[in-house]
Structures are given as C-alpha cells and as structure tokens.
Sequence to fold (642 residues):
Amino acid sequence: MWNQVSSTLSNSMAQAMGRFASLLPGILAFLLAVVLFSLIGLLLAWLVRRILITLRFDERMGRGTEAVTEWSPRQTPAGLAARLVFWVFVVTGIAVGADAFGASSHSSLAEGLLAYLPKLLSAGVILLVGNIVARFLSRGVLIGAVNMNLQYARLLSLGVKWMVLVLTAAMALDHLQIGQKIVDIAFAILFGGIVFSLSLAVGLGSRDLVSRSIERETSRAAAAPAQEEEPLRHF
Amino acid sequence: MAKVEVEQETEGQSPSASQAELVVGLPGPVDVAQVKATAAQWTGSGQHIAVVFPCVPGMSEGREKLGEAGDVWLVAREVTAVAAATAPWLGQPAVYSALLAEAESLGAGACVILNPDLAAFTPPAVDAMLRPIREDQCDLAMPLYRAGPFDGLLNQAILAPVARALYGKRVRYPLAQDFAVSAGFLPGLRQGMSTPAAGQGLLWPATEAVLRDKRVCQVSLPVHHHYPTMGLDLTTLLQQIVAPLFADMDRHASLWQRVRASHSVTESGGEPGEAPAASSPDPRPMVEAFQLGQRNLQELWSLVLPPVTLLELKKLSRQPLESFRMPDALWARVVYDFALAYRLRSLSRGHLLGAMAPLYLGWVGSRVLEIESGVPTGPRQEQLERTFEQNKPYLVQRWRWPDRFNP
Fold:
C-alpha cells in the first residue's frame, strides 16, 4: 500500500512539475518582453526628455500645457512626455509578454487570467486617474471655498473628494465585472440619496438662508456702480 | 470704442528715421481723439515726436501728421497675438515689444511708455520722465507715484520688497506702467521680451535694466492711475501679477543669487508725497479670512511652508484683532517659500496662488491696523523691504537646497 501511495504521489509530483516546466518558457518570454520593453522605454524616455529640454519645450509650450501640469504639478511638460513614452513601452511589453505567454501555455486558467489582465490594467488606470482628479478637485474646492469665506470649506472639499473616489471605485468595479448590478444599484442609491438630501436641506431647512443670500447678492450687484471709491487697492 | 480717425499710411508721408527724436508709446487701447488733443500740445515744440499705439478693433495701421509744423505724428500699429487678459490694465509683452521695435526703427533718442489711461500723457509728465534720460545719462526712468496708504498693496507687500531684495535696486514701482527708456537700452529691453517665457509674463523694466547693467533712475510723477479691481477675484489678481514675478525669479535665479545688498537709485523731482486715504478699510474681514485659511489650508500650506513658519502662523491666528500684527520676517519667509514652491511645483500653480490669498489678506489686515494706529507708511515700508533683504540668505539657501534646508 505504501508503494501505491508513493507511486501516486511521485506521479502527481511529476505531473505538477511537468506542467510548471511547460509554463516556464512562457513566464521567461513574458519577463523578457517586459524587461526588454522597459529598457527600451527608459532609453527613449531619456532621449525624449533630453531633446525636449534642448528645444526648450517647457518654455515654448508655456501656458498651453499649464492645464496638463496643473493635474500633476511636480511634472513639467517635458517630464510628462518622457513618462508617457516610458509607460507606453511598459504596457506594450506587458501585452507582448502576455501574448507570448498565452502562445506557449495551454492551461485554461492561464488563458482566463490573461484575458482578465487588460481589464485589471484599465481598472488600475481608472483608479489612478480618479485619485488624481479627486485630489485636484478637492484642493480646488477647498481653496475656492476658503477664499469665498465659507466656514464649511473643508466639508465641501471632503464631499467632492469622496464623491469622485466613490464614482471612480464604482467605475473600476464595473470595469472588472465584479458585482455589477449591486455596484450599479448601490451607486445610484448613494448618489441619488446625496442629491435628494441636499435638495431637501436647501429647499426646506435653508430656504430663508438661500433667499437672503440671493437678495444680498442682487443688492450688492445693484449697488456696485454707485460705489466710487474702493477703500483699498491691491494694484 | 474709440472713433477711428488715423489716416492710412501713404508713401512720402512717414517721418524719416532720423526725424523721430522721441517716441511716446501707449501700450493698450486708447481714445484716439484724446490722444490727438494731447499730442497737439507738442506741435511746434521743435522736437520730432511719434505717438505710437496699437490698433483698436476696426482700425487699420496708419500714420497721421498733426498740425502744420509736421513734427508730431500719430502712428497706429497692428499687434498680433494679444491675449485678452482678465486685468486689461496689465500691459501685454507683445504690445510693449511692438512699441519698442517701432521706436528703434524710427531711431528715437528716447522712448516714453505711458499707461493707456493717458493720466501721464501730458507735456510736464513726459518732460519729467525724459529729463534723467537726456540730462543724467540714465537708461531707464521709473516713476514715483503719489499713492495713498491703501493703494498698490500688492506692490507694497510683494513686488517692491522682492524686486529690491533680489536685484539690489530700490525701485519703488517695479511693475510701473509709465517709464522712459534711452536709445541705448531699447534693444536690450526688447530682447528681454523676446524669449518665449518672457513673452507670456509681464514686463519688469527695472529687472531687465539690472540684467544688462543699465542705469536706473526714479522720477516723481504726481499722477494717479485707477485700476478697477473691485470685481476681480484676489486669486486671479495674484495669478496675473505675482505668478509672473515668481516665474521671473526662476528665469533669473543665476543673477539674483549673486546680488548682495541693495543700492538706492537717483531720484529727481522730489518726493511725490502721500495721497490722502478716502476712508480706512475694515481690517476684520481680512484677519478673519486669514484665520479661516489657517484653520482649513493647513494641509496645503504644509506642502509649501516649513514647520517653524506654520507654527508662527498658528500663533498669529490666535491673536486678537487689536494686537494682530504679521511680523515682517515671517511675511518675507512666506513669500520666499511660495516663490520656491512655484519653482518646484510643490502644488499646482493655480492652487498655490489661491492658497497664498488668505496669507496676503492677513498681511493687508495687519498693515491696515498699523496705519490706523498711526504708524507712518514710508518708514514702515522701508523697514519691510529691509527685512526682505535680510532674509534673502534664507531664500538663497532654500533655492539651492530645497530638501536639505528645512528649518
């Protein structure tokens, strides 16, 4: 009996090792493709950066690219272009590697995982972009609200940040096809609920406040032309 | 819109290059009828003058002789790529460049650039601006305006102190809209505006003069320009005026890091005096805006300011209104840190200037309180500017080693 167990175990081990060995060329091809494309990407990104700096790309683009660099403030336009080149090559390397891996492997699990990989990548990009947008918008709202002397500036900023983050998470989950209906319904309820409660709060609770605020703005606009002297002048 | 009355250019009508001894440039939309009426005062004066201004919409390029003597000409020039600024009273570099080019092409002995509101477009004011150029061999004459204690606060708080500390010349209005340029400095000033980065900023004549080792003078100019900023958002104002200053700092970093101390410039025409304030503004909303910023913008300020400065700002925000005073050294370091953050892009640039607005309002509130308590503005301003100079080593060290130097 011990012999039978031992033989079964060694057979299973041999099968497992065989399958693993059959995957090895694919894994190697994948890693090679990713490393090779990353190296090419690094080299090209460096070249692009040098060329753009020599051409004074940042200065020439000037305000045209301010909008782009505003979202990622630590990056100059030349830096962003170089980064873009690098990441395009890395993603291409992953795609080529995955293709090579799929060609050398006949496992259904591996094929399934490979088919899912592009969705994972795009979900990652959605999350990254959503995070950047959430940070940018929340900062913008916070600064704008403080400069408008709104006492609840931080609350507004947090609200905007979480709205964008929740929207991003819902989009990423939807893209990954995880709990699609549940996510859709939950998101619709959450968003609809927020908007509904805000309308109720403004319509019922703050009706007087809103009307007073509108009246004040209207009277200020009407009174503005009559003002001749500004008490202080910044410029 | 002004009525278009300048005649089309015709062969033989233009003054020859040697004829224009003086070019008066008006870098913005002007009332042509008013320009004609004022320029007519120079006819028969014996000197050949060309008054140059950009075409307003509906006007085409042209020249027109005024009077029978033929010594005064109006010249309208087409200037392309003029962006519509939110604050139209800020001169556009493309327009300045076109006016200076015209002055060069006419072989002018001097060029006087005046604010298009025409407040300084009078023979006495133009003569006053020209005198140091013609008699004292100055290359650039900057104005000394007659301003009230609550006028030009951005200039008092940031522009003048930073320009003095950085470039070592005590110019009181570095972003003046009226100035005179000698023939020798015309090409240099125009060249300073030809770089792409400079073309998108503002014109800082005194900085360009220091860069080219030219002589700067100041002239008392008792005029008062009214810039309507009431409806303009403070953040927008900071973005349009302070952001170009910070960009300029970045561009000329190699120059100003070598400059030590500051020197006074020759002044003529006497002290212009201080215009009386119509009314004293209420400092409470400004101080409250600062306190609100202190409560809410900590996260953003911590990306720009070192912990010591944050602590000092925190202490300041707890002071009651009566004793609210922003120390000069603190304000100088705040401005320098924001300039550095602009360079390092620690925060998106739009957000950076927005985050600076409550701090600036805190400074304004403090200045208003000081003036109300009877502190004379002249010596107080001198003290502030000296503090900016004393804190320049802080800026230089942070500029050179932004990560290492974090007190």
Residues 38 and 61 of chain A are 28 Å apart (CA to CA). Residues 2-54 of chain A form the longest helix (53 residues). The mean pLDDT of chain A is 79.
